[in-house]
Write a structure and sequence with these properties.
Blueprint (H helix, E strand, L loop, with lengths): L2 H4 L31 E7 L7 H14 L3 E5 L8 E2 L17 E2 H12 L4 E5 L20 H5 L14 H15 L6 E2 L9 H6 L8 H14 L6 E4 L13 E4 L18 E3 L13 H12 L9 E4 L6 H6 L2 H12 L7 H15 L3 H6 L6 H4 L9
Parallel strand pairs: 1-2, 1-10, 2-5, 3-4, 6-7, 7-8, 8-9, 9-10
Helix pairs in contact: 2-3, 5-7, 8-10
Length: about 375
């Protein structure tokens, strides 16, 4: 099973029938207990499509590693990966893929995760990183030069009178589908990245305060509490009032002096230091050290969740960057156990890695990236 994530068989060899949520016989979680309520990893379906069977194999793997949260990004500039009953025309596959997730598939994944004590938390990006909403004409600003060059941070057109009704439909349906999640993510960062789009159209960048006020009203209507709504840490933009009381910190920590005004709520998620798409050479020891530094910071309240970032990584990159090997390092850090040097850590890492049933050759890599040309033919051993 773990071989289906870290090995060459991306779509898996484990025959999983739709609606079959039972934990496969022989799978046992590692004896690791996170200090935080949630230990999670991000899955970027806003840029890539992951077959549902592959996701289920991932959920089996995360169950073994003691993860209990998948931050499931459904939208970004590249895709709107949910084919919703209320707004089917929004569905837009990521470039190079032909699939989005049906409501039935999403419900099946939620149930499969729940059987493993794992929560699927949805994210839909707004008002920036919203190019995926563009399948309905007029919902995003039409700036072709920007879209054909950088295309990073395409904004919703908040002046469109249809937008709020569509947002309400989306949030209402996703709240129902992801009913097992206590939290709901609405993106919300890097709106300043769309400045070239506004300049191309001869417009001033929008004042999003009114949109966020309307968004707060919609959240109340559909039954999503403000206290359970997450937004990304703001960077490079004016910290305007936003809907949602919780912040997911990805670049800094709420304890830093510059953040104290916006970090008044003690509940937060932390991803800073744990982005696996930006540091090719990081290994499990590096991720262990960063998770302790950022996620278990002394003299500061623990985060509600530690969430590893895997932005822009498709299923092939999950193999090549050895994401599962690194996730084990973060899982060990989340227990609070302290290892002062790499040698002491690696002894514990090796013991846990062997217990998962991963091929010993993979364990020896200790989270370093895999030489795909050399290792794709490994005989990956399943967890049994």
């Amino acid at each position: 099973l773990i071989n289906n994530i870290v090995g060459n068989h991306y779509d898996g060899q484990h025959n999983i029938r739709p609606g079959d949520s039972a934990v496969p016989q022989g799978i046992q979680p590692l004896p690791l207990t996170p200090q935080t309520q949630y230990l999670g990893v991000l899955l970027d379906a806003g840029r890539h499509y992951y077959p549902t069977r592959w996701i289920k194999n991932l959920l089996d793997t995360l169950y073994v590693l003691r993860y209990n949260l998948v931050h499931f990004r459904l939208t970004d500039d590249q895709a709107f990966s949910a084919n919703l009953t209320s707004q089917p025309n929004l569905a837009m596959p990521a470039f190079g893929y032909n699939h989005t997730y049906s409501v039935g598939e999403l419900r099946d994944l939620v149930a499969y995760a729940q059987a493993r004590n794992i929560t699927l938390m949805p994210e839909v990006n707004m008002p920036g990183h919203a190019g995926g909403w563009g399948n309905i004409p007029g919902l995003v600003l039409d700036c072709p030069k920007f879209a054909c060059t950088k295309a990073y941070g395409i904004p919703l057109d908040i002046s469109n009178p249809r937008l709020l009704g569509i947002v309400r439909d989306v949030l209402m349906e996703l709240r129902d589908i992801f009913s097992t999640s206590d939290y709901f993510h609405l993106g919300g960062d890097e709106v300043h990245m769309a400045m070239p789009c506004f300049r191309e159209l001869g417009l001033q960048i929008y004042d999003y305060n009114s949109f966020e006020q309307d968004l707060k009203k919609i959240l109340k209507e559909v039954g999503i509490p403000q206290a359970k709504v997450l937004r990304w840490e703001t960077t490079g933009q004016k910290a305007n009032w936003r809907a949602g009381d919780m912040t997911q910190w990805w670049l800094s920590h709420p304890s830093e002096p510059r953040n104290r005004a916006t970090a008044k709520n003690a509940s937060y998620f932390i991803s800073a230091g744990l982005y696996m798409d930006t540091d090719l050479n990081a290994n499990a020891w590096n991720l262990y050290s960063r998770a302790r530094e950022w996620g278990l910071k002394k003299d500061h309240p623990l985060p509600t969740a530690i969430v590893a970032g895997t932005f822009e990584l498709g299923k092939e990159e999950w193999f090549e960057k050895n994401i599962v090997g690194r996730l084990l390092g973060i899982a060990i850090a989340a227990t609070g156990d302290v290892y002062d040097n790499a040698t002491a850590f690696e002894r514990v890492y090796d013991e846990h890695c062997r217990a998962t049933g991963i091929d010993p050759r993979l364990c020896k890599l200790r989270g370093t990236p895999i030489d795909a040309a050399k290792h794709r033919t490994m005989n990956w051993r399943p967890v049994m």
